[in-house]
């Protein structure tokens, strides 16, 4: 059973080696909120490699520069975006330009989970 965390701007569901984020409708995700997400991920995954899945069931926007901060986390290995519209797909393609970690968009959550698990398992990330 995943651990679900409610935030002012959405939800996080923590699994063994990835987290799924669902951000609320109309939010513009900026550095302050990203810092909360990153802090919770660091606390939950400690020294284990993990992936991040953004399940975009609602419409919201992101400051793409938040990816620069996320990349600094050594055990963060990949990000998957689950899109439902062509506009979300286009936004994710633009966001991908700001992220140096493996980054992929998908049309369903199960495929995104499978891809993230593969990236985490293949990452070879080990931290002391």
Describe it for me?
This protein is α/β, with parallel strands linked by helices and 128 residues long. The protein has one domain: Transcription Regulator spoIIAA, CATH 3.30.750. It has 4 helices and 8 strands. A 6-stranded mixed beta sheet has the order 1-2-3-5-7-8, with helices on both faces. Strands 4-6 form a two-stranded parallel sheet. A hairpin with a 3-residue loop joins β2 and β3. The longest helix is centred in the first third of the chain and has 15 residues. It is globular and about 35 Å long. The mean pLDDT is 91.
Q: Estimate the mean pLDDT confidence.
A: 91
Structural class: alpha/beta
What characteristic shape results from the CA principal axes? globular
Number of strands: 8
| CATH architecture annotation name | 2-Layer Sandwich
Which runs of at least 5 residues are low in confidence (pLDDT < 50)?
Answer: none
For this structure, what is the CATH class?
Alpha Beta
Count of individual domains: 1
Tell me the strand percentage band: 25-35%
Instruction: Kindly report the CATH topology.
Output: Transcription Regulator spoIIAA
Instruction: Tell me the helix content.
Output: 25-40%
| Assembly classification | single chain
Distance between the termini: 27 Å
Gyration radius, rounded: 13 Å
Order of secondary-structure elements: EEEEHEEHEHEH
- How many helices? The count is 4
Largest sheet entry: 6 strands, mixed
Q: Strand order of the main beta sheet, please?
A: 1-2-3-5-7-8
Organism: Sinomicrobium pectinilyticum
Protein name: STAS/SEC14 domain-containing protein
